[in-house]
Design goal:
Length: 210
């Protein structure tokens, strides 16, 4: 089996770090507002805690989703690198002060031959990665007794299942449209699992975690 060598650049690493930091800050602000009405009312320690939760539960979901596209695209011999959308990162942080988040941190840009089947496989890799992360966060929830880790796990399940469902919508530039054109059976299986996870894992976790 041929080993895939992941190629990257200083620019891509810089953009990944930039997007991760911005998304983490935005969600930490929104989480603080949700508990204290204003981020400025939240104790500094609580904000730092929210930042840790955001960096792990949210940051991993967004960035590993994009990196999954990159890895599969490079498997097919394409050039593929993540580029951050700096304006949208600033918008996400600014909007977070209202308690709402609109996060579009960036995307993986691909150059090379990509037909419908390959495009479908590259696209479905992102949502599948989110579902795998949701399972890992679910297991973390079950095995941990630490309140911070449990909070991270619960947010991780919620964010990753939501990302999978949202990206599987068959519209515009979203992954779902490309997956639907490639293979409708796989499309509905992945979407069905995502919906099942979104509603089922929190309930199952609450029952088993007692």
């Amino acid at each position: 089996m041929k080993k895939i060598k992941i190629k990257t650049s200083k620019e891509e690493i810089r953009d990944l770090i930039k997007a991760w930091i911005a998304i983490s800050i935005a969600f930490a602000i929104a989480f603080s507002i949700d508990s204290y009405d204003s981020v400025f009312n939240a104790p500094f320690q609580k904000f730092i805690e929210n930042l840790v939760v955001s960096a792990i539960a949210v940051g991993f979901g967004f960035l590993l989703h994009e990196l999954a596209h990159k890895i599969v695209a490079q498997k097919y011999g394409c050039w593929a690198e993540f580029r951050s959308w700096d304006l949208m990162l600033l918008v996400a942080i600014a909007l977070s002060f209202t308690g709402w988040i609109f996060a579009a941190p960036g995307a993986v840009f691909i150059s090379g031959f990509v037909g419908i089947p390959r495009n479908g496989r590259i696209s479905v890799a992102g949502p599948i990665t989110n579902l795998v992360l949701a399972i890992l966060f679910f297991i973390l929830w079950l095995v941990s007794s630490n309140s911070l880790i449990i909070t991270i796990a619960q947010y991780g399940i919620s964010v990753n299942t939501w990302l999978a469902i949202f990206n599987m919508l068959p519209f515009g530039p979203l992954d779902g449209k490309k997956v639907f054109l490639w293979n409708k059976t796989i499309y509905f299986i992945v979407l069905g699992i995502a919906v099942l996870f979104m509603f089922g894992l929190p309930v199952l976790g609450s029952v088993l975690g007692q």
